[in-house]
Amino acid sequence: MDNLVGLSSSLLYKPPMCTTVIHAKILHTSLACIVTLPMAPSSCFVALFTLSCTLLLLMGCSDAQLSPDFYSKSCPDVFTGVKSQVESAVSKEPGMGASLLRLFFHDCFVNGCDGSVLLDDTPTFTGEKNAAPNRNSARGFEVIDDVKSAVEKECPGVVSCADLLAITARDSVVLLGGPSWNVKLGRRDARTASQAAANSSLPSPTSNLTDLISSFENAGLSTTDLVALSGSHSIGQANCANFRARIYNETDLDRSFGEIRRKNCPSSAGPGDNNLAPLDLHSPVAFDNTYYTNLLQFKGLLHSDQQLFSGGSTDSLVRTYASSPSTFSSDFAAAMIKMGDILPLTGSDGEVRKNCRKIN
C-alpha cells in the first residue's frame, strides 16, 4: 500500500535460490508414475520419494540459511548496537518507528528483503526511492545510516543492510509497545533495484479485499498474514491524497470520524495533498490493537483498511484481533518472520554493503 506503512504486493512468490537441483531424470520418472505409465512399483516409489524430498529441500532452503544466531560469532553485539540507535531516533520522534517499519515492508515486497529500497539514485543508476509509493513519503534513511555506522565500527563488513532493516523494524515495534520476535538473519544486499517493480508491486490505498488477498498470496503470505500485518496501521500517518476519496465519497464511514478528517483534507487536489492524518485516531504512536476496533466502528482511514471489515471473509479475524490483543500480537510476530523470508539473497549472492545507500 502506498501509504505510510505499506504492506501488500503483487510480487510473485518464487522458491528460494539454492544449490539443490531437481534432476530431469527424477522429475520425468516421477511424472511417469503419476500418469500411470507402465513402470515397476518399486521404481515409482523411489522416484516419487526422491522428488518429494528434493522439493522439501527447495522449500526450506532459504529458511535454513536464515537464523537469529547468524552473527553470534562474527558480530555478537549487533542487536545491542541497533537497538541503541533506534531508541535514540524513536525517543526524538515517535513517528520514526512507523517509518522504519514501513521501510522493511517496502523492501521485502519489492523483489524480496534485499535492502534495495535503501539505494540512492545516481546519474547511471535508478533506485526505488522515487517510485510513486516511496516518493516524498519513505523516510528514516538517515537512521539506517546511523545504525550502519554504529555496527560497522564494531563489525566492519559483516552485517548486511537488509538485516539491519529487519532488526530496526522489530525494535521499532517493541519500543512503541508492540510484540517482539526472533529476527532471522543472514540476508545479503542486492546490487540492483527496480523502480518499476516498486511502482507495480505495492497496491494503492484504493485496493479492494480481493486484490489485497491475491497480492499476499502471490507473495507467499496468507489471508491471516494480511490482516495481522495490516495492524501496522495502528501507528503512522497517511497523506490526504491517499484517503480523500474515502472521506468524501464512501458511505461505510463513521460520520464524526469523516468530519474530523475532512477538516484537514480539502476535497480537491492541490496544496493540501500532503496534509497528514494518523492512521489510528486514538493511539497513533502506540502499537496496539485499536486499529481493529476502529475498523469495527467504520473508522478505517484508508479504503484498503476498511475493506478488511466490509462484509467479507476477513470480518471474523478483525473481530478476533479487536477482542484479543494477545492473538493479534502473536499472529503479527509470526507474519513478520514469514515476510522476512521473502526471496532473501544468501550465501554468495549479492554483497554486504559498506554504505547502505550505494553498492560497493
From TrEMBL:
<dbReference type="InterPro" id="IPR033905">
    <property type="entry name" value="Secretory_peroxidase"/>
</dbReference>
<keyword id="KW-0376">Hydrogen peroxide</keyword>
<keyword id="KW-0106">Calcium</keyword>
<feature type="disulfide bond">
    <location>
        <begin position="75"/>
        <end position="155"/>
    </location>
</feature>
<comment type="similarity">
    <text>Belongs to the peroxidase family. Classical plant (class III) peroxidase subfamily.</text>
</comment>
<keyword id="KW-0408">Iron</keyword>
<keyword id="KW-0349">Heme</keyword>
<dbReference type="GO" id="GO:0042744">
    <property type="term" value="P:hydrogen peroxide catabolic process"/>
</dbReference>
<keyword id="KW-1015">Disulfide bond</keyword>
<comment type="similarity">
    <text>Belongs to the peroxidase family. Ascorbate peroxidase subfamily.</text>
</comment>
<feature type="binding site">
    <location>
        <position position="288"/>
    </location>
    <ligand>
        <name>Ca(2+) 2</name>
    </ligand>
</feature>
<feature type="binding site">
    <location>
        <position position="110"/>
    </location>
    <ligand>
        <name>Ca(2+) 1</name>
    </ligand>
</feature>
<keyword id="KW-0575">Peroxidase</keyword>
<feature type="binding site">
    <location>
        <position position="280"/>
    </location>
    <ligand>
        <name>Ca(2+) 2</name>
    </ligand>
</feature>
<keyword id="KW-0964">Secreted</keyword>
<dbReference type="InterPro" id="IPR019793">
    <property type="entry name" value="Peroxidases_heam-ligand_BS"/>
</dbReference>
<dbReference type="GO" id="GO:0006979">
    <property type="term" value="P:response to oxidative stress"/>
</dbReference>
<dbReference type="GO" id="GO:0005576">
    <property type="term" value="C:extracellular region"/>
</dbReference>
<keyword id="KW-0325">Glycoprotein</keyword>
<feature type="binding site" description="axial binding residue">
    <location>
        <position position="233"/>
    </location>
    <ligand>
        <name>heme b</name>
    </ligand>
</feature>
<comment type="function">
    <text>Removal of H(2)O(2), oxidation of toxic reductants, biosynthesis and degradation of lignin, suberization, auxin catabolism, response to environmental stresses such as wounding, pathogen attack and oxidative stress. These functions might be dependent on each isozyme/isoform in each plant tissue.</text>
</comment>
<feature type="disulfide bond">
    <location>
        <begin position="108"/>
        <end position="113"/>
    </location>
</feature>
<feature type="disulfide bond">
    <location>
        <begin position="240"/>
        <end position="265"/>
    </location>
</feature>
<feature type="domain" description="Plant heme peroxidase family profile">
    <location>
        <begin position="65"/>
        <end position="360"/>
    </location>
</feature>
<dbReference type="Pfam" id="PF00141">
    <property type="entry name" value="peroxidase"/>
</dbReference>
<dbReference type="GO" id="GO:0020037">
    <property type="term" value="F:heme binding"/>
</dbReference>
<feature type="binding site">
    <location>
        <position position="116"/>
    </location>
    <ligand>
        <name>Ca(2+) 1</name>
    </ligand>
</feature>
<dbReference type="InterPro" id="IPR002016">
    <property type="entry name" value="Haem_peroxidase"/>
</dbReference>
<feature type="active site" description="Proton acceptor">
    <location>
        <position position="106"/>
    </location>
</feature>
<dbReference type="GO" id="GO:0140825">
    <property type="term" value="F:lactoperoxidase activity"/>
</dbReference>
<dbReference type="InterPro" id="IPR010255">
    <property type="entry name" value="Haem_peroxidase_sf"/>
</dbReference>
<feature type="binding site">
    <location>
        <position position="112"/>
    </location>
    <ligand>
        <name>Ca(2+) 1</name>
    </ligand>
</feature>
<feature type="binding site">
    <location>
        <position position="114"/>
    </location>
    <ligand>
        <name>Ca(2+) 1</name>
    </ligand>
</feature>
<dbReference type="GO" id="GO:0046872">
    <property type="term" value="F:metal ion binding"/>
</dbReference>
<feature type="disulfide bond">
    <location>
        <begin position="161"/>
        <end position="356"/>
    </location>
</feature>
<dbReference type="InterPro" id="IPR000823">
    <property type="entry name" value="Peroxidase_pln"/>
</dbReference>
<feature type="binding site">
    <location>
        <position position="107"/>
    </location>
    <ligand>
        <name>Ca(2+) 1</name>
    </ligand>
</feature>
<keyword id="KW-0479">Metal-binding</keyword>
<feature type="binding site">
    <location>
        <position position="203"/>
    </location>
    <ligand>
        <name>substrate</name>
    </ligand>
</feature>
<keyword id="KW-0560">Oxidoreductase</keyword>
<feature type="site" description="Transition state stabilizer">
    <location>
        <position position="102"/>
    </location>
</feature>
<dbReference type="InterPro" id="IPR019794">
    <property type="entry name" value="Peroxidases_AS"/>
</dbReference>
